Amino acid sequence: MSITVAKSAGFCFGVSRAVETVEREVKAGKQVATLGPIIHNRHAVRHFEDMGVGVIQSPEDAVPGSTVIIRSHGVSKAVYQRLCDMGVEVVDATCPFVKRIHDIVSREEKEGYLPVIIGTRSHPEVEGIAGWCNHCRIFETPEELENWAKSGEVSPDSSICMVSQTTSTESLWKMCGEIAKKHFTHLKIFDTICRATESRQSEAAKLSAVSDAMVVVGDTHSSNTGRLAMICREHCGKVVL
Known about the structure:
This protein has about 240 residues and is of the alpha/beta class. The protein contains 9 helices and 10 strands. The chain has helices at about 15-25, 40-50, 75-85, 95-110, 125-130, 140-150, 170-185, 195-210, 225-235, and strands at about 30-35, 55, 65-70, 90, 115-120, 135-140, 160-165, 185-190, 215, 240.
């Protein structure tokens, strides 16, 4: 039996950076907590719990004088401010690629554009992005975007800027881009899919097309892992997550 391991397997830059940040703060002897699980991997979270790292669900749960780390998914502007008001040291481990999207939607809205986010509404990254602008629209599928564009809620000459959740698939993003171009004349499209995500998805597609079975290793609560499994199932009849 031949087993091929994907060359791009493993944590991406943003996740590695967040994990290293937690380890650094713990080694410095600080009382550390993360706002939500540092990454969507229960094994990593359990590892940090064994090191004494707590997980809080809201800024109000923070212990004054402690160190609270914002995970790689990022948080909304309001949540960030509430955390700063709690009398804790705030360490921002938001992935730089996600932070770039925060800057885009904030800047473009100030210039008169309506931010459109392509992604999963309930995902922490998308919730965080939406929290850096006052008004936005979130669409999970090309069909949702198409129906909204045809609804008459906005006119074809409306100023629209479009961004994507970093872990979205390239095919979904391209389809949404084509729909937006078809309906809006005053449109800015920012390709915000993480290139590390894109390369992993591309390799998953290529490997699954030439393999009898695929094993995707990761947590079932991870958006990244779930999308990799979905892509593999498009090309291979036996996929285990």
